[in-house]
Amino acid sequence: MKTTSHMVEKEIDDRAVLVSLITQKQKKNELLAEYSLQELVKLAETAGVQVLETMTQNKEVKDTKWFIGKGKVEELKLLLEELGGNTAIFDQELSGAQVRNLEAALDVKIIDRTQLILDIFAQRAKTREGIIQVELAQLSYLLPRLSGQGKNLSRLGGGIGTRGPGESKLETDRRHIRGRIDELKAQLEEVVRHRTLHRERRKKSGVFQVALVGYTNAGKSTLLKQLTQADVYIEDQLFATLDPTSRTMVLPSGKEIVITDTVGFIQNLPHDLVASFRATLEEANEADLILHVVDSSTEMRNEQMRVVGEVLEQLGAHQKEQITVFNKIDLISREDRDLLSAEGEFMKVSAYAPEDLDRLRVTIEDKLMGDSKEFRIPADKGDVIALMYRIGEVLETDVDGEDMVFKVRVNTEDYVKLAYLLVDYDQSTGKAEFEENEGESN
């Protein structure tokens, strides 16, 4: 019992000075550099680190050996000794050589922004898919840096930088790590295969999918909970939820859809992480509609929207039907609300205002359901009629001899699904002959 207590104590014993380098290029947007450092503080606190102090250096270009200047390294060493720090966290990505040099000079754990984000993900991953993706991202990041990770990996007292695969003797040899990466990729491919099958079943059943995307801590999980009355974990911290969460939502017409909360984006999201989490993030790519949730209460909302747009473009989802949802309007003044705008369709809501949620549900339905069309279907085609009820909103029904006549609100894509079942469709009469389905019914 004593051992466990001691381990827990060491696990939260990271005391860090945070360091940011502002180059000539970054100096053009000092507000962005300051925001990035503030975000690093939040990331460190989310990882369970005690932040002692922050330090910045203005420099033309980064130092290839030390990243920051040699004089700044000496200043950092004195500050760490004075404050009793045992970790230095850098706001930018470091090379293996820079980690090695800084570690030798400072004799503390050296962590960069990418490794810090990966560490948070290691803490938050709960599902098999999330755990595989985190380990794959960590190994892909560490492989080219092994020579600079000697002391970090030998500090097995716990804390940031040593969770997940960091505790499993990564310093063995590159061949073993490459083998592990191949093994994880194979496991992930199997997970992706299962996910694809689920998506195909959803599409066949005519269930619409809506994806919530946005910057971390924009309020996506809160919105999901309020829209679906589901039990969803909510916390005011970065990456409070990592694994995608899907819940059923009922539209005003009574039709059910699936709404999914995806992992939050962040400035300088590590490339290894984007690559490893592609399967999860592709929920956005497969969605019929994307709700881009924006924290309207932050001054950096335009920058955050840009970051989300870039990640969606990387995924090939930027041309999907999209609504920008400015959330948290209850936290800003009416004057600031009037200034909120975005390209394309947008809404201003508070996740805690029932009338705003009702408006959002109506807007989602209008986007998904499309225009009304008339279908004349033989009454004995029960499978087609059932599919029409699932993918469209049946507004009117009538009987004409042996046929059923339906007036249905359905979007273009799902209209094509219905038309796919038709062999001959007479546009003038609306009379349709249906192809007999063999095997599994749609």
Give the radius of gyration.
26 Å
Mean pLDDT: 78
Give me the side-by-side strand order of the main sheet.
6-7-5-8-9-10
- In what range is the share of β-strand residues? 15-25%
User: In this structure, how is the largest beta sheet organized?
Assistant: 6 strands, mixed
Number of strands: 15
Shape-level CATH architecture of the largest domain: 3-Layer(aba) Sandwich
Give the overall silhouette. Answer: elongated
Helical run tally: 16
Alpha-carbon distance between the two ends: 57 Å
Q: CATH superfamily membership of the largest domain, which one?
A: GTPase HflX, N-terminal domain
Q: Could you say how many structural domains there are in total?
A: 3
CATH level-3 fold name of the largest domain: Rossmann fold
Helix and strand composition category: alpha/beta
Low-confidence stretches: 1-12, 153-157, 423-442
Helix content: 40-55%
Text of the CATH class of the largest domain: Alpha Beta
What does this 3D model show about the protein?
InterPro entries: G_HFLX_dom (IPR030394), GTP-bd (IPR006073), GTP-bd_M (IPR032305), GTPase_HflX (IPR016496), GTPase_HflX_N (IPR025121), GTPase_HflX_N_sf (IPR042108), P-loop_NTPase (IPR027417). GTP binds at residues 214-221, 239-243, 261-264, 327-330, 350-352. One of its GO terms (molecular function) is GTPase activity. With 442 residues, this protein is α/β, with parallel strands linked by helices. It has three domains: 2-167, Rossmann fold (3-Layer(aba) Sandwich), CATH 3.40.50.11060; 207-368, 3-Layer(aba) Sandwich (Rossmann fold), CATH 3.40.50.300; 370-434, Alpha-Beta Plaits (2-Layer Sandwich). The chain contains 16 helices and 15 strands. The strands form four sheets. Strands 6-7-5-8-9-10 form a six-stranded mixed beta sheet, with helices on both faces. The protein is elongated. Mean pLDDT is 78; it is low at 1-12, 153-157 and 423-442.
